[in-house]
Design goal:
Length: about 725
């Protein structure tokens, strides 16, 4: 966040600057010098300005020279430095360094020879502890080392001599530090320019990451007219001994010779704040003559610093007429120029870190247009910024001009092979055909179809895909004049669909980029025929499996429930009369499927008395639409044969004794139900005396009833000699 704030406040007009020493001015961006003089910096050692060049060394032995800017800049911004160099005219030593130093340190020069005027170095040889001081407050140096001693163990850090290397060394001060970070071979294998006219171009981008670690990239070419190439990419300047990033930095160049020599020259220096802008364009691949053309392009800031005042330019194809454009900024982005007209667009935009803006361009292509349209868009960083990744700053797109076409649409629905009818829960096929009714090829042919409720996309072998209910089919080839292209895809009708054929009607539309009116839609298409509406139904049949026809015995039943409808049945259940229950093997039945349910009834005396036991089985289910479905019922009656039977006994209280006339003789009768049914309405009569009185009138199987009565003895009975009661 700090980098973004500083980037937007420090620039052409000046602004915030932290920890600037009293003798240091602010370095304003962009900073550029052609070295007509040493103005803007301080020369040290052997460095001189001559012929619009900074000459760090002559082709003489034992030299070290430096030039460093008088102004300093906030380290949080980073820096982008571009320059040209010459390395020629001597015996091939040593090299030069582009460096950053602590803005609070004084300007100066480092060790000659192996130190390239930046690093410290031993005085008695190319390796070992330093005795000759390096540049004051050095933070990072990028050395272009022809002889190879800059890779030696200066201050005991380095892999050893490596000629023609681009080498990075870290921070140091006096005779301590300047640690070796990395090194790579020179582009083309050599750093020499051969002469002053063979100068090479270099660009170095350095900026801190989110953790405050400076990251460094280096690009270079191999001479005039050759392309720039990345030779060091995003290397972290970190590790043991690397100083923390100081509040401010200054830029400098240093060079040296030792026992061997070269002229080392710097020219055309430009210094700016790094940023990273890009542009992308959405331009049609083909356009129809006589139609309106629309395109968009988007500029973005991917860098760590804001880019206020970036400039977007676009060359709209000259064939387009009535060109208009608008700018739509993202959050915190400001379109300084929000709209305009004409084929040459130039617009300013303020891009914060992460900001973007989308430009929409419209125009009309005449009916007589032919050939190819070419659209070029470029985004340029503001003057005080330098784009760290310039390769994505320009985009060019082309579109082929084709004649306007007329695309029509037909659509049909059909059963799958082998199906006799479509029923809810089944699949079927749609076929949509695009036909080019014009005399010119149609480009970018596509079909769009929004499926009705209850119908869903299954799949296709014809480049058809779906996003929810929206189906899109595309063709990779042009559609010739008079030709047609069919797209077939499978669809599914939901099991819960309760409507008819005409309750799921829809249309499709074929289109082409060359069809000015967007294509003609098909007629409304219903579901395929024959169509059977959802008809949930079922049947129930029950049989007795076994029976124990005694009180407490069991009667086992088997109940079969069959789905006789054309849709699935869920939650199949069987109810049983008399409070019984049934258990089914499965509760979901597809069309034509069946399940077996079992139930047990317990025989009661009431059943035996009634002479039969009857159970009614009633089945129900739920349709896919969630409605209750009655499936029917069946009853099973089992007959029980009645076997009424009983026994009796009578006892007199005067049996075996003498009786006299007028004596009251009592007797007791016992009756037992020995059959399997309940006896009711028990009636007992006596041959002598009054009707007996019984304890019960209803007698269950196995139960007893006691009846009592009496008889008064007559003289005739006495004369007879005995009494017989029955």
């Amino acid at each position: 966040m700090l980098a973004a704030v500083l980037a937007s406040t420090v620039g052409i007009g000046g602004g915030l600057l932290a920890a600037v020493p009293a003798n240091a001015a602010e370095l304003h961006f962009p900073f550029a010098t052609d070295f007509a003089s040493a103005d803007g910096g301080t020369l040290t050692g052997s460095a001189v300005v001559t012929d619009n060049k900074l000459r760090l060394t002559q082709a003489q032995t034992g030299q070290a020279g430096s030039w460093a800017t008088d102004g300093v800049f906030p380290s949080s911004l980073g820096v982008d430095v571009s320059f040209s160099y010459g390395m020629y005219g001597g015996s091939g030593a040593d090299g030069f360094v582009a460096y950053l130093a602590d803005g609070a340190a004084s300007q100066g020069v480092g060790a000659p020879g192996a130190g390239l005027g930046y690093s410290c170095a031993p005085s008695g040889g190319p390796s070992g502890p330093c005795t000759v001081a390096g540049v004051p407050g050095g933070y990072v140096g990028v050395g272009f080392d022809q002889f190879g001693n800059f890779s030696n163990a200066l201050g005991n850090s380095g892999p050893g001599q490596r000629s023609n290397q681009v080498v990075v060394r870290g921070s140091g001060d006096g005779t301590a530090g300047y640690r070796y970070v990395t090194g790579v071979a020179a582009p083309g294998g050599s750093l020499s320019t051969g002469s002053a006219t063979g100068a090479r171009d270099v660009r170095i981008t350095m900026q801190p990451d989110a953790d405050g670690v400076l990251r460094l990239s280096v690009r270079s070419n191999t001479g005039p007219g050759t392309p720039m190439a990345v030779i060091i990419d995003n290397v972290a300047v970190s590790g043991a001994g690397q100083a923390a990033l100081p509040p401010t930095l200054r830029l400098g160049f240093a060079g040296s010779t030792g026992g061997s020599t070269n002229v080392h020259e710097i020219s055309a220096v430009r210094v700016a704040v790094p940023t990273d802008l890009s542009v992308t364009q959405d331009f049609p691949t083909s356009v129809a003559a006589g139609t309106d053309v629309r395109s968009t392009f988007t500029v973005r800031n991917h860098g760590q610093n804001a880019a206020p005042g970036a400039v977007v330019t676009s060359t709209v194809p000259a064939a387009l007429q009535n060109v208009r454009w608008t700018c739509a900024p993202a959050a915190d982005t400001v379109c300084t120029d929000r709209s305009g007209t004409g084929n040459d667009i130039r617009a300013a935009v303020d891009l914060p870190v992460g900001g973007s803006a989308e430009y929409t361009v419209t125009g009309t292509l005449p009916k007589t247009a032919t050939g190819t349209l070419r659209s070029r868009v470029h985004v340029e960083a503001p003057a005080d910024r330098a784009d760290a990744e310039p390769d994505d700053n320009t985009v060019t797109s082309t579109a082929r001009v084709v004649a306007n076409t007329d695309v029509t649409t037909t659509k049909s629905a059909a059963l799958l092979d082998g199906d006799a009818a479509l029923i809810p829960g089944g699949d079927f096929e749609y076929t949509v055909t695009a036909k080019n009714q014009s005399t010119s090829p149609a480009s970018d042919v596509a079909v769009h179809d929004t499926l009705p409720d209850g119908v869903s996309f299954v799949g296709s072998a014809d480049q058809c895909t779906a996003d929810g209910q929206d189906v899109t089919c595309t063709s990779a080839t042009d559609l010739a004049a008079g030709a047609d292209r069919s797209f077939t895809f499978r669809a599914h009708l939901a099991e819960g669909f309760t409507g008819g054929r005409d309750d799921a009607v829809n249309i499709a539309t074929a289109s082409a980029s060359t069809d000015r009116d967007g294509g003609e839609s098909s007629r409304p298409v219903p579901l395929p025929a024959p169509f059977q509406a959802a008809a949930p139904a079922g049947e129930v049949s029950a049989v007795r499996e076994s029976a124990q026809l005694v009180p407490g015995g069991s009667v086992e039943y088997r109940v079969t429930v069959r789905n006789t409808g054309n849709v699935r049945l869920d939650d199949v259940a069987v109810g049983v009369s008399a409070g019984g229950t049934a258990t089914c093997d499965t509760v979901t039945l597809g069309a034509g499927a069946s399940t077996t349910c079992t139930s047990t009834a317990t025989v009661t005396q009431d059943d035996i008395d009634a002479g039969r036991i009857t159970r009614k089985f009633t089945a129900g289910a739920t349709s896919p639409a969630g409605a209750a479905v009655a499936l029917g019922s069946d009853s099973v009656t089992t007959t029980i044969t009645a076997a009424p039977q009983g026994s009796s006994a009578i006892v007199s209280d005067a049996a075996g004794s003498e009786i006299v006339a007028g004596q009251e003789v009592g007797y007791t009768s016992t009756f037992s139900n020995t059959g399997n049914v309940t006896l009711s309405g028990l009636t007992v009569t006596a041959t002598l005396g009054a009707k007996p009185s019984c304890s019960v009138a209803t007698l269950a199987p196995g139960a007893d009833a006691t009846c009592t009565g009496s008889y008064r003895v007559t003289q005739a009975d006495v004369d007879h000699g005995s009494i017989v009661q029955s």
